[in-house]
Design goal:
Layout (H helix, E strand, L loop, with lengths): L6 H9 L1 H12 L5 H7 L17 E4 L3 E5 H11 L11 E4 L10 H11 L1 H14 L2 E3 L6 H8 L6 E5 L12 E4 L2 H8 L4 E4 L2 E8 L8 H12 L7 E6 L1 H4 L3 H9 L8 E4 L3 H9 L3 H9 L8 H5 L7 E6 L6 E3 L7 E3 L3 H8 L5 E7 L6 H16 L7 E5 L3 H9 L2 H7 L3 E2 L22 E5 L15 E5 L2 H10 L11 E2 L5 E2 L21 E2 L36 E6 L6 H4 L12 H4 L18 E2 L6 E2 L1 H11 L3 E5 L11 H8 L2 E6 L4 H9 L3 E5 L13 E4 L11 E6 L5 E7 L4 H9 L2 H8 L1
Parallel strand pairs: 2-3, 2-5, 3-4, 5-6, 8-9, 8-11, 9-10, 14-15, 14-17, 15-16, 17-18, 22-25, 25-26, 26-27
Antiparallel strand pairs: 1-7, 4-21, 12-13, 19-20, 22-28, 23-24, 27-30, 28-29, 29-30
Helix pairs in contact: 1-13, 2-3, 4-6, 4-8, 9-11, 12-13, 16-18, 16-19, 25-26
The structure holds alpha-methylisocitric acid and iron/sulfur cluster.
Iron/sulfur cluster binds next to helix 7.
Amino acid sequence: MSQVFDLDMIKNHYSRLAERVENARKVVGKPLTLSEKILYSHLWEGSTDVAFGRGNSYVDFAPDRVAMQDATAQMALLQFMQAGRKKVAVPSTVHCDHLIQARVGSTTDLSDSLIKNNEVFNFLSTISTKYGIGFWKPGAGIIHQVVLENYAFPGGLMIGTDSHTVNAGGLGMIAIGVGGADAMDVMAGMAWELKFPKLIGIKLTGKLSGWCSAKDVILKVAGILTVKGGTGCIVEYFGEGATSLSCTGKGTICNMGAEIGATTSTFGYDDSMEKYLRSTGRPEVADLANNIREHLTGDAEVYANPEMYFDQVLEINLDELEPYINGPFTPDLATPISKMKEAAAANDWPTKVEAGLIGSCTNSSYEDISRAASLAKQAAEKGMEPKAEFSITPGSEKVRFTIERDGFIETFSKIGAKVFANACGPCIGMWARAGAEKKERNTIIHSFNRNFSARQDGNPNTLAFVASPEITTALAIAGDLTFNPLTDSLTNSKGEQVMFDAPTGYELPPLGFDVKDAGYQAPAEDGSAVEIKVAIDSERLQLLAPFADWDGTNIENARVLIKAKGKCTTDHISMAGQWLRFRGHLDNIANNTLIGATNFFNGEQNKVKNQITGEYAEVPTVQRAYKAAGIPSIVVGDHNYGEGSSREHAAMQPRHLGVRAILVKSFARIHETNLKKQGMLALTFSNEADYDKIQENDKINFVDLVNFTAGKPLTLELAHEDGSKENIFVNHTYNDQQIEWFKAGGALNLIRKSL
Ligand code: MIC
Ligand code: SF4
């Protein structure tokens, strides 16, 4: 059975693409990149007379679709419920994947999670039915894999409430991660605003071979560009190396573009995408795309002289690429495998690998699994006994069913592998790893995308390294971080020295994909009679109360709730793992606010000074005390604050607890927008060094908030404990509309008012 979703929407878009691209070319006045073609063909107004300034024009777009996952959909839909619509305005889907724990194995874990999350899954299923949203049940797969298999189409624009929505760039889309409030706007039939991105072109030459895979391309790019190098940019890949990659390999590269902070990444339509569309049951889309091929990729002039058209250009030769291992604790610390012995010794990383995990939304393709399985097979045949625990998290039921049919699951079982449910599981701290509570320092390796502290098993002393599924498998079998399968041998059970041959696999299943029950539930034709109930005493779900609007005065005597030191990702601001269960209940989840951030003044986590009592306590406790006493507060942070997830909880929680402003050296894109949407002040130091001027006992006064204007810095007065005072300037990127959100107490309040 195959079903092409929303084919009419795709047809409709393609039918006017040629004309829109031609118009855009005229307006821009030169040949176009693929990114520009997609963006200019999705303008809310349909067309434009002026070219947009990259990196500075705010532009209204009309995305083709919206995707949400269970952990973020709750908040997105709690907001959507307030927008007064009968149905979503564009095709939208919900995917249940984040709330499923990885403990024993897929069947038990899935049924346990159905019981534990019953209330939330019911809510999501009912609300989807009501509002015309496609619902993918728990077990159906991870959002990004399911989107790639079913919904992504070349030249399309989509947004999703998850930072790895960008995965769909593998099929030639512009797919962007957003907070739930942005998703709500689009589902409610409004425009979606984005600052027109800058463009980074990455030319790939040569061809992958041997141990190298698509993952190594992005691991290398992450090493070059770092976790913030892609901020505000779309990365467009091109060149013979790009067309030589499989579609799912491209997906992997785009997926991890989130780890360099890129708005998204994309590739031009080519044969690999056509093959993937056909293989996943969408020949109609492939045929349509073939008719307009030239509009679904960048213009030839652009790729011939990229320096003239992109803001930054990199070139990577796939012939010379080496496998990389990135980490620990940050995805951009890139070490080529040949240098791992030195790096591990220099940094004193434990070299014994305790666990290897493959799969996730990043690396779950048939190609990935078949290549990793070829190594597992060799291990069994050559008598290499796996030294580390090993697990697989398939990305979707379609992939899982197919790899089981083709014998790969059996191959993995022979090396003692555990198969977890088709869900996020260990990637998002939902790994009930035995012994993790002992907090021992240890090393694991996985083929996921993120490796922030405590992210996989909740243990902050687990050093997680990111690598391709092939390298992950080989190192798990060797049980050694410094093992280089390209050059080193292992001692097998007979005491002989044996080596791995390079992995081999299949781009797509030779017998085609298959699945019995993909796990999809279609919405009701007319859902108006469907009722959504949220129990008043629920600990999992809570209807949203409007945030207070701005009282029109300068914020005065604000206290520093915390001055966060170093990395402060969304995982530090609103942890996942066990806290995921409160994603639909703002007050309950607020109890994890900033508990992972390090306090600059004492180097400790979750221990800040309560300025009312002078005592140190947990961050949420102290903030609740300020709120109760009516004392405003601000949070201070370092670079790339809010890096990582799209979870708007990281903005809503401080807002709910009464924090008024977040003042940092720089923001990650999604988080900055989330703060604005929720009526917070998102500010950056005009002079980065002013971060050092903020003292623990300061009182902070806004001098000119009453004149809050687009493009004009604000002034803050720091009143220090010793009686001295000094002013600092802070920048912001609010446009007029966004200032209105601030004044109204959040964007949703404006919608409420308009009803
Ligand atoms: C992640 O990979 O961090 C997540 C969990 O998928 C998040 C979404 C969330 O926090 O629910 C993301 O990437 O946006
Ligand atoms: Fe799920 Fe991990 Fe992918 Fe996020 S990165 S969607 S948690 S598998």
